[in-house]
């Protein structure tokens, strides 16, 4: 049964309802604030007792729960209640729970009974869900989604116009952005509706303004000032500063402006736009104001002249009324001339009128009554001018003439010196002219002068002939002296012959010394002096040591500087993407500048800390490290094993720092030899332990291969790739006419873009084509063939330049031999492909593709390779890569199949190159290094290493000691045991203040301190026989140089004469002087120096004792008269000569290397300066005035349509394009533009345009874009227009 509804107060019910209420105990009244009309009475009587129930449908119960949740202001519970299926409500979006709660609570409070029924909830939820989705679309700035949500009928927006959807979306986005900045994340339904109404009102106002503008143009054409004034005062047009009293002048100015526009546009139907009308009103008001001021000033001047009052004249002339430049010094002259001019004007008619007539802009007449102050642009009734007064034009002319005369006079006074100079120049010209005339006269008289000279010469010749005859008579007596000179010349020839014979004998003796198995003693004596160390030797040795230290330091500092610059690249990239702040980049820049400055100061003033700068205990510890690093340097097996015990990322850092430091970056031949030995050992170890298949070398990333390639392309200043590839790469890059592109689609698009850019007209060809479609055009095929021909020519040039350094070739040889040993079944072609992968693909190919990244070419700071140059090099590298691997062009590259024959021919050249590359001598033969090389050096090998690197190396050796040296009696184990535990920086250096608050930073800086270690073998001194042999040889050389003999035994047995003792003493004294000049680190041991000072006989006795000891050791034999010791000395002489030769070569190499490193440092410093300039520009841009004015560009749509930029505008005929104006204004940021659209001068819409986006669209082949959602624009021609007008391209 249906009952009645509750009344407004919810109290008055009928009797039936009260009975129902009484029949349902336990229910509170509030639970009945639902529609009773939907409740059912259920009869469950058993025939005796009547039992009745009220039944409410589930949706009504759900509605009651929803109202309760809304009333309790719990958004989450409200959301749960709304989403219950039994509520039967529209879709609810969980992310907008707060929105539902807020809006439904407000709606509930507005309800009279504070209760929302099901139908009210359904409508409200449906609208709220639509508004929520609209807000979500606004948040993501999805224009299409915004339009669709606005069109949704369920949202219930009023007065929505289809043509205004774009405006609705733009305005809503702006309102949403402003609301978000104020902390409001949600636009309500009312906010959106208000926005729609506002846009509709704006559109209506724009339309009304357009209609009003047309009315104004019609009134102007009619020539009725009153009608024109009426239209100008229309409220819809919203014009400013319209003064009804100026109606006539408005009519004249606007009519002239319209006539001028029709004339300029050659269009009789042209109309004035809103901004042009406003400009006309402003010009008219300005004309009237200027005319009034000028008339008033003219009146005041004439009054002063009539009263003969000169005092105010200057003040009046200086006022803005006349707009004159007045000089106070000419005040009296102004008054005098004006008074004279006025007196000349007599009153021809005593009945002259009070009117002054002025002509404004040579076009408009202006009348001013000097008595009443009345003014008008219409000729007054009975107009009679005041002829006795000066007009404004006359006053301006007189004052201007006086001022000009004064300025001219002052100019002459100020430039008196220049006038004097001009006079001097004039006088100089006259003098030069006179000189030239005199010179011309003399030149005309040249024949006469020649005749006079001939006569004088004849006279002089005759006198000389007489003197010659006299001299001949005197000379006859000197013939005897001539014969004596002849004998002298004969003796000179004899001397030359003797010198030639002696030279031949010396050469024969030297050949005997270096070639004979047992060189004779008399030959050895002649060349024993070569073992002496001269001042030049010491100087060269010191210079080599200094250069080596500087080279290593430069390499390390360049590496660190390069890392910091790379980090700066990353930071600037993040800054551009707004990932970090400018302050972070500035901070890193300051650190970079400070580090660069400190490195330069260290190079100039800093010395490496040596072992002598430490205490006795720490000196002993460093001596132990010297023994350790000598063992690691000369025995490559330890480091080879250590490399593979560490993770790859850790081993790479270890190689870049410790290993290359240990070998001084191969700065001399000894260290290059030892480093190659390490590479060889490590590569063999890696192939034996880690390579399972031969292709693993190609497909994987072998550690040693990577280390070798990195080192040979590294920053050690000896980039052989630069020497090989730089000339040809630079030639390719400098050839501006070289354009290689092997992609048909790219060639096609470039062709189309070139046509449009050059002609400025839209192309009729399609923009998106496939490879097959592109190849259908003959122009594309011709350009492709031209590129292929150029590619062959350039590739041949690069192929001729390809060659590898000895180090890379030797590693290639080791790689091939090791692979052949492990994989004996591998063919020669397979092995050569592996070699090619190393020598070309890994080593050379990246340097060809990116020469700027591998120091092949010199780049200026901030410079970069052009995309065309990069593509040219990439194409060459691609062809060489295919040729090196014998891979033909097929499949997607089938259009290049014409090069397959060329690829096969090139592969054979590569194959021959790879075979020849592996045919290199061993390092011992290449560098002439053997077991005696270190014995003749003046100084011990020195490395420059930081304390941190020493500690890290010690730690790694202890960590992997079992794998590196498994044998207990290994020398490495003994050295590590002697060193003990790994020290920290503080215990290593000591002398660190424990109370220093910056102790950690101090220790961190000290850890980077570099020290020099002179590497020596710990076991060198324990070999007594070698020491005896070395000392004996030195004593023998001293003896045989002063005492001759056929054999050593004979010399030792025959006593020396007094003369020989004297000669020996001179040799000893000379050596003592030389030893005193010898640097400390190059001196021999003390015992050897003492032996060198002994007399000759004592030296003989010591030689005999040593020979007996050596004979017992089996090193020499008395049976052959100790020829072995003679042979050893001869070998020392040969090694000494070889070492001097190597040292000179090393000196040249180090100087070249240092020069290259300094160039690299200069480039890095330029890069630092470039970054500093960039950062300074960024800082300047931050503080730059934001109100900079930019020149805008204005075009009508008709003009842009003629240029092909605009293709069409929706809903607008072509003949209406002339009334649409586009205003293009550059933004604050480079490449940003704001484009505004106006119709009849009324601004309609605007859009932001980014030039980079246009270039991206052009790159992607997009030909047409939409602007304002209505205008279709040609992308290529728009780029052409912007380039031409704003960038001058």
TrEMBL record:
PROSITE patterns attached to this UniProt entry: IQ, RAS_GTPASE_ACTIV_1, RAS_GTPASE_ACTIV_2, WW_DOMAIN_1
InterPro entries: IQ_motif_EF-hand-BS (IPR000048), RasGAP_C (IPR000593), RasGAP_CS (IPR023152), RasGAP_dom (IPR001936), Rho_GTPase_activation_prot (IPR008936), WW_dom (IPR001202)
A single Gene Ontology CC term: cell cortex
Every Ras-GAP domain range: 657-885
Any one biological process term the GO annotation gives: mitotic actomyosin contractile ring assembly actin filament organization
Pfam families (UniProt xref): IQ (PF00612), RasGAP (PF00616), RasGAP_C (PF03836)
Region listing for Disordered, in residue ranges: 1-20
GO MF assignments: actin filament binding; calmodulin binding; GTPase activator activity
Name of the protein in question: Ras-GAP domain-containing protein
Organism: Gopherus agassizii
